[in-house]
Amino acid sequence: MSENKPFKILSIDGGGIKGLYSATVLSRLEEKAGRRAGECFDMICGTSTGGIIALGVASGEKATDLAKLYSEHGKSIFPTSNYRFFRYFQSKIQALKQTLFWGKYSAKQLKKQLTNTFKEKKLGELDNLVCIPSFNLTSGLPRVFKFPHKEGGFFMDKEIPLVDAALATSAAPTYLPIHEYNDTMFVDGGVWANNPSLCGLLEALKFFVGDEGKNYTHVELLSIASISQASGWAAKSRKRRSFIGWKSKLMQTSMDGQAYFTHFFIQNAIKKIDPRAKYVRIESPKLSCEQMEVLEMDRADKRALATLKSLGNQDGYTNANIESVMNFFKTDKTYKTQ
């Protein structure tokens, strides 16, 4: 083993339509580097919408094309009127569906766009190692979809279509239907790993990095956050709340808390694992009051999409001038999947 051979990981948080922000940030980094992210990272991790982006990157897609999946088709996946008057009544009907019936949205349009992007490609055909968290409702346990690798003797996911892995990681409870594959039911990985950085770090340390005949000396991890809205409540807020009273904060609070702790843990533990290890996180941008009103996990009208794209471009260009970020793109990945 080389004296200094890093195992590079790219991790992308979940966040619904806010994946447009993450994909746009990544597209600006690729533009500055003059190469695709998939050429530079040994492993790509992503949860929910981040899982869709991760699978796209690992299948050879450019981030700018993945951003178009959201900007051009987001409104068909999350139907949202551009007009406030109609959006108000639309939101009431969707809230009723979400609370009492079968969830806010069908997965039909999402599946259509995923099929257009991934065709019939399977996990075993990817260009990078991947970790795509989901939750197996049938077993009641977390599930991580992976590229099959000899280091762990792991081959069970080899024939799983990318479309099914993407639907399994993004099936947000009450927003999109539970995804069934091979007689097993899955929901969004964001219920336990909205920031999948720790999944990638553990996978790397268990199978690829360290002594005992492993091929890599240390981990270098770049993590891209989603846009996080303030989920704190006023001190005198009503304490007894129904599901309707919680609204979207129920899901958002869980995802934000998990993402924050994962970042906090890795930030404090990474150098104790190995002094050579590197960890960089592109954090959520600070939002104005007006932007907070516009952005939601499933709001895909023109104004929301334009705001997400603008924030992504702004943070992408900013981070494209940060050396610690762009260092990840200077060298080729060294793990060969094919």
Automatic annotation (TrEMBL):
Pfam families per record: Patatin
PANTHER family listed in its UniProt record: XYLOSE ISOMERASE (PTHR32176)
Record-annotated active site: S48, D188
Motif residue range(s): GXGXXG: 14-19
Keyword match Hydrolase: yes
Matching Gene3D superfamilies: Cytosolic phospholipase A2 catalytic domain
Similarity field: Belongs to the patatin family.
Source species of the chain: Cryomorpha ignava
GO molecular function: hydrolase activity
Motif (DGA/G): 188-190
Domain PNPLA: 10-201
Motif GXSXG, residue range(s) on this chain: 46-50
Alphabetically ordered keywords of this record: Hydrolase, Lipid degradation, Lipid metabolism
GO annotation, biological process: lipid catabolic process
Protein name per UniProt: Patatin-like phospholipase family protein
